[in-house]
Design a protein that fits this description.
The structure holds 2 protein chains of 2 kinds.
Chain A (H helix, E strand, L loop, with lengths): L1 H4 L3 H23 L2 H17 L11 H20 L23 H18 L3 H11 L5 H8 L3 H21 L6
Helix pairs in contact in A: 2-3, 2-4, 3-4, 5-8, 6-8, 7-8
Chain B lengths: L4 H11 L5 H11 L3 H16 L13 H15 L2 H4 L6 E2 L2 E2 L9 H4 L9 E3 L6 E5 L1 E2 L5 E7 L2 E7 L8 E8 L6 E7 L7 E5 L8 E8 L12 E4 L2
Antiparallel strand pairs in B: 1-2, 3-4, 4-6, 5-12, 6-7, 7-10, 8-9, 8-11, 11-12
Classes of the chains: A mainly alpha, B alpha+beta.
């Protein structure tokens, strides 16, 4: 990261290669449109390049930093594009559907990590999983979620809390994911 | 907000970015004095940092890497790293350069806490120009970075827009009313953000930012919170 801070394009390429697939997958999950997701990733990485000096290792990993910028950009993008209504992602290019023999070792590891996190999320009671997904991937506030689901705001917040607590416990028991 | 079960109930929603703007600001202030909530936020953050991995994994689209790196190289050519990287106190030959702000619409902004507009660095051979913008109504900071025919607005410590609003970027040509761009943005939890300013900036006298309802407006409905003066 120091090299990125110093403006080393080569070091930035390493960061890009390491995190771009996850970044794109997150953007696509949130935006639901490939072209928009590509724009989000491009904007996010260029913004990261320009702001490399703002990375603070004390506040988390490079991966978290990259993905949080992509997350914020995606929320900005669908506020701009108003695509919330059509964000149902269906695509045959899913890495999950690709036989392992056709994937690189890194892709296999990412797929396995993704499956572990998804499995932890899937183990939550449906109502906790729902509010977490609406908040994180949908960019909705707890009030919007409460209104949509016809629940008191306190119930929505409570479900978020219970869900994240359980996710931590489940993932903490599975070594290799909580990196 | 005192230390209580009630404040702890906000921690998960805060980490998920799901609190309303006012609630998030209040909770951030509360965090400064509540160790229980700070611990809870740190613990939940670990789980939320992993949530992106729950997204179905797709291969990177062909050409995206090439496109990003091409843009980066173009920026690099226009902006040598030692000039273009932002620093706390931009300098030339090791000396901090500041020149007094031009007075900006005194009648309009007199009542607002205006940080002067300062031109900190100008092009020379690098083609880079950084203009400090006026930020009103908060202790935020904003600067406009012009390089290679592109303009980027970079903000920090800017409060989020009011509930149900986003920030919208406008271009002003002389005395004509501001014209809207398609740039709408918000800021991160630390008040940071950067956006490209589209279009031809020839003849543009000011770049403004106002809070507008989500989706943007065709004419400003609020007083500008950021004014970057080009001319």
């Amino acid at each position: 990261m120091q090299l990125v801070r110093d403006g080393e394009a080569g070091a930035f390429e390493v960061i890009f290669d390491r995190h771009a697939q996850r970044a794109f997958s997150l953007a696509y999950r949130m935006c639901g449109r490939r072209a928009l997701a590509e724009d989000v990733v491009q904007e996010a990485f260029l913004s990261l390049w320009r702001s490399g000096a703002r990375y603070d290792p004390a506040r988390g990993s490079v991966r978290s930093w990259v993905l949080s910028v992509v997350h914020n950009r995606a929320i900005d993008a669908f506020r701009r594009e108003a695509v919330k209504e059509s964000r149902d992602v269906r695509d045959d290019r899913l890495v999950e559907r690709t036989p392992s023999l056709l994937l690189t070792q890194t892709e296999v590891e990412r797929r396995d990590d993704a499956q572990q996190v998804r499995s932890a999320l899937g183990e939550l009671p449906a109502e906790q999983q729902q509010v977490i997904e609406l908040a994180y991937f949908g960019g909705f506030t707890h009030s919007q979620i409460a209104e949509t689901l016809g629940l008191p705001a306190g119930t929505v917040k409570g479900r978020m809390r219970l869900g994240l607590t359980k996710m931590r416990l489940v993932l903490g028991e599975r070594s290799g994911v909580m990196l | 907000m005192s230390e209580s079960n009630e404040c702890r109930s906000d921690a998960a929603a805060y980490v998920l970015g799901s609190l309303e703007q006012g609630e998030a600001e209040a909770f951030r202030r509360h965090l400064a004095s509540c160790v229980v909530c700070r611990d809870e936020v740190a613990a939940f953050q670990q789980a939320v940092d992993l949530l992106p991995m729950a997204a179905p994994q797709y291969p990177l689209p062909r050409g995206l890497r090439r496109r990003v790196l091409r843009e980066l190289r173009a920026e690099r050519r226009a902006t040598p790293p030692d000039v273009g990287r932002r620093r706390p106190a931009p300098s030339l030959f090791g000396m901090e350069i500041r020149r007094p702000a031009l007075v900006l619409g005194v009648l309009l902004f007199a009542a607002l806490a205006t940080v002067g507009a300062l031109e900190l660095a100008s092009s020379g051979s690098s083609g880079v120009r950084i203009i400090q913008a006026s930020v009103t109504g908060s202790a935020g900071h904003a600067e406009l970075r012009l390089s290679g025919g592109r303009a980027e607005l970079i903000v920090s410590r800017l409060p989020p827009p009011p509930l149900g609003h986003v920030y919208e970027v406008w271009l002003t040509h002389g005395r004509r009313p501001p014209s809207p761009t398609n740039v709408l943005f918000s800021v991160t939890s630390t008040g940071s953000g950067d956006v490209g300013v589209p279009g031809d900036l020839r003849g543009v006298s000011e770049i403004l930012v106002t809070p507008e309802p989500i989706g943007g407006s065709r004419a400003p409905t609020h007083t500008p919170v950021i004014v970057a003066r080009l001319a």
